User: Which sequence fits this backbone?
């Protein structure tokens, strides 16, 4: 055990050393286009014709944010910009993608072209043409209108239909655009980069309507990083603090004795309620509170004149400022907004609760909600207003009495553009004048909610697998039961997990996790694909219990395909090739070399590593179900054909994912597979039984190569095949007077013959 642990530490340190040595190069190369250069870097005459069909020429990229004027007959007809320059667009892999977007002088998108991305989901399972078709749907889109990304529900218990990936609050009319199948998160991120970037450029170039005489508008584009205390001190976040003493005073005025919610034993100075409100439409507030991605989703999904408010509270136990059953209420009773002589009430459709915020140094909050106001709501965000909250108390007889508290709010002038002083450079709430690149965070909860049916099925499958491996001894004693379970589970892995759900872990996932740990850890990006995230966590936990075998032997769809094809081949009496031990020991090293090479390459050039990752046939065989370019199909079929004669040929000798999992799987802490003292000495039956050559001549099982098929354990318990078990069976049936001397050795020799 000590020797194995030492080797495990050595291999893990070797991988981490390669990662650490490559980290500076990864940060330096980063594959992030230089600001202002991505347009000239990727723009070609062909792409210009796609993005701006009516253009004659393109001027230099300049201005803040950078954009290039587009000319026709020497007249400016619009602008062309890079999503990276304007919104720092990144995918769920936390790596840049670049969209070239055109916008004309009427505020309509003339065209969009994806020119750079390193999204693993796209590399593994999608063609770039699918993303190109997706972006082409934005041609002619009015940037004043929001965009809602929808995807078809194919696995819902409610039947077919569509699901909004954005789930923004309110009922603002938005254009519906279908997401790229199996890439909904990437679709949302690209859509937000297009819409928000186009609005930023349109406002900066005067394309969107300028403030009318005497009317102000919000500075929604400028951003400077600021934490919660800074925004609160600047007035961007309104705060109302109520103590129990203040509440009891208001209770007496209303004739009540105690609040409905709260602690009766609390002292007068103890806090009763902290209520917060903030207008999050300006990027300088919204991005700091919601995060870049949530802000992009909720603003790009709505009209350009719609407003978003954040209401949050830290109040008594079981207290909600929204009231009971607010989701189904026509009017949310406890809250209303007052501005001048207008009182604005809310409906449940205008509200979306949030599980958490991305604000730095935010206080403890028990409730968070995002409220949407349409352009026709009557709320003027540049003028003062107040939030009125209705609270309840009880009299001695239990009768309820109500009273209200008010939180006044006025948006700081730094977030308002006044027509009278257009040249003044507004200062950021944090005091800095230069915008900082905000951190992005994925709203992965919405993605998980959309796929809850698949998550439930996967959870049931993983639970079943855990039970199978926990009861392996019971199952291994029953040969037919073992075979049925093995074939049944592998069929589920191939058909549902692989071909239907597309949940195939690949070496790209493993490389992404290594990069996340070494260069820029982002847990939210690792949760973007729920099925892959769950499989990854289960596989990681399984490394400590079963090593690489938990995934490679039971949960890899391509591995299941190979094994099932080989079982059919054996049933048809196709001869199996026996690989000599010396050659086998050299071939198994190939997958480790390939994996280490990909790790090193990924820190030098991610594109180079992705090219090397094409050694995996998963994209053609599993994700695309053999419906793709013929060279990829031919390669995948060749590997499957090799598995007809050598079981799991690819898994054993070429799979870099298997090599990586085997290296990390050396942290395995338990030996569940049983052996007899005679194994490898006088008896070597299991060595011939193992379909993948994982049992050494000594009888020991090489867990680096074991796929946990349990064939050796079936033989171990078979008292008609395993010589020690044969001897035990015969001994049980011997007469008491029969000599037992040498019987065990004789039984072993007979079984071997």
Assistant:
């Amino acid at each position: 055990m000590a020797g194995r642990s030492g080797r495990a530490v050595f291999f893990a340190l070797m991988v981490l050393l390669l990662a650490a040595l490559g980290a500076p190069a990864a940060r330096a190369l980063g594959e992030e286009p230089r600001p202002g250069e991505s347009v000239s870097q990727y723009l070609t005459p062909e792409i210009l014709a796609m993005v701006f069909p009516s253009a004659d020429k393109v001027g230099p990229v300049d201005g803040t944010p950078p954009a290039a004027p587009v000319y026709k007959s020497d007249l400016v007809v619009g602008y062309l910009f890079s999503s990276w320059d304007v919104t720092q667009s990144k995918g769920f892999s936390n790596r840049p993608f670049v969209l070239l977007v055109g916008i004309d002088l009427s505020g309509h998108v003339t065209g969009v072209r994806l020119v750079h991305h390193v999204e693993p989901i796209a590399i593994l399972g999608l063609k770039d043409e699918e993303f190109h078709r997706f972006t082409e749907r934005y041609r002619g889109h009015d940037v004043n209108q929001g965009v809602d990304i929808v995807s078809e529900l194919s696995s819902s218990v409610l039947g077919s239909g569509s699901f909004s990936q954005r789930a923004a609050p309110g009922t603002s009319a938005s254009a519906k655009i279908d997401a790229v199948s199996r890439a909904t998160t990437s679709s949302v991120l690209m859509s937000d980069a297009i819409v928000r970037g186009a609005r930023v450029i349109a406002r900066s170039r005067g394309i969107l309507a300028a403030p009318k005489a005497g009317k102000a508008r919000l500075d929604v584009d400028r951003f400077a990083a600021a934490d919660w205390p800074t925004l609160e001190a600047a007035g961007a976040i309104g705060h109302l603090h109520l103590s129990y003493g203040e509440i009891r005073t208001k209770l007496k005025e209303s004739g009540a004795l105690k609040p409905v919610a709260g602690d009766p034993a609390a002292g007068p100075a103890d806090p009763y309620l902290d209520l917060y409100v903030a207008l999050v439409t300006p990027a300088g507030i919204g991005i700091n509170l919601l995060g870049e991605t949530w802000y992009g989703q909720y603003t790009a999904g709505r009209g350009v004149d719609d407003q978003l408010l954040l209401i949050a509270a830290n109040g008594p136990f079981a207290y909600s400022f929204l009231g009971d059953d607010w989701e189904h209420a026509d009017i949310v009773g406890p809250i209303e907004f007052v501005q001048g002589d207008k009182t604005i009430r809310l409906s449940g459709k205008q509200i979306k609760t949030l599980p958490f915020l991305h604000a730095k140094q935010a206080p403890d909050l028990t409730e968070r909600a995002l409220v949407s106001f349409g352009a026709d709501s009557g709320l003027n965000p540049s003028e003062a207003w107040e939030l009125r909250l209705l609270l309840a108390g009880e009299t001695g007889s239990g009768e309820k009495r109500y009273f209200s508290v008010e939180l006044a709010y006025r948006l700081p002038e730094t977030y308002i553009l006044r027509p009278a002083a257009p040249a003044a450079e507004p200062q950021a709430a944090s005091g800095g004048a230069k915008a900082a690149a905000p951190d992005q965070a994925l709203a992965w909860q919405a993605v998980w909610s959309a796929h809850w049916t698949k998550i439930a099925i996967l959870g049931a499958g993983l639970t079943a697998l855990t039970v199978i491996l926990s009861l392996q001894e019971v199952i291994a004693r029953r040969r037919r039961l073992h075979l049925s379970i093995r074939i049944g589970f592998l069929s589920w892995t191939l058909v549902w997990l692989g071909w239907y759900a597309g949940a195939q872990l690949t070496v790209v996932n493993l490389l992404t996790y290594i990069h996340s740990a070494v260069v820029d850890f982002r847990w939210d990006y690792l949760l973007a694909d729920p099925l892959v995230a769950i499989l990854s966590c289960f596989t990681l936990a399984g490394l400590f219990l079963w090593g690489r075998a938990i995934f490679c032997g039971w949960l890899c769809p391509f591995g299941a395909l190979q094994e099932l094809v080989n079982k059919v081949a054996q049933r048809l009496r196709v001869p199996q090739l026996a690989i000599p031990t010396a050659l086998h020991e050299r071939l198994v090293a190939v997958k480790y070399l390939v994996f280490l090479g990909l790790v090193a390459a990924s820190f030098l050039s991610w594109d180079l590593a992705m090219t090397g990752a094409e050694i995996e046939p998963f994209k053609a065989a599993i994700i695309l179900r053999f419906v793709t370019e013929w060279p990829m199909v031919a390669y995948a079929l060749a590997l499957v054909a090799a598995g007809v004669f050598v079981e799991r040929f690819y898994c054993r000798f070429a799979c870099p994912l298997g090599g990586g999992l085997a290296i990390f799987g050396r942290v395995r802490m338990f030996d569940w597979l049983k052996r007899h003292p005679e194994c490898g000495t006088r008896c070597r039956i299991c060595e011939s039984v193992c379909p993948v050559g994982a049992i050494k001549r000594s009888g020991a099982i090489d867990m680096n190569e074991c796929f946990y098929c349990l064939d050796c354990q079936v033989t171990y318990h078979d008292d008609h095949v395993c010589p020690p078990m044969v001897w035990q069976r015969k001994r049980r049936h011997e007469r008491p007077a029969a000599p037992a001397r040498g019987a065990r050795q004789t039984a072993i020799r007979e079984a071997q013959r």
The chain has four domains: 35-204, 217-444, 453-670, 723-752.
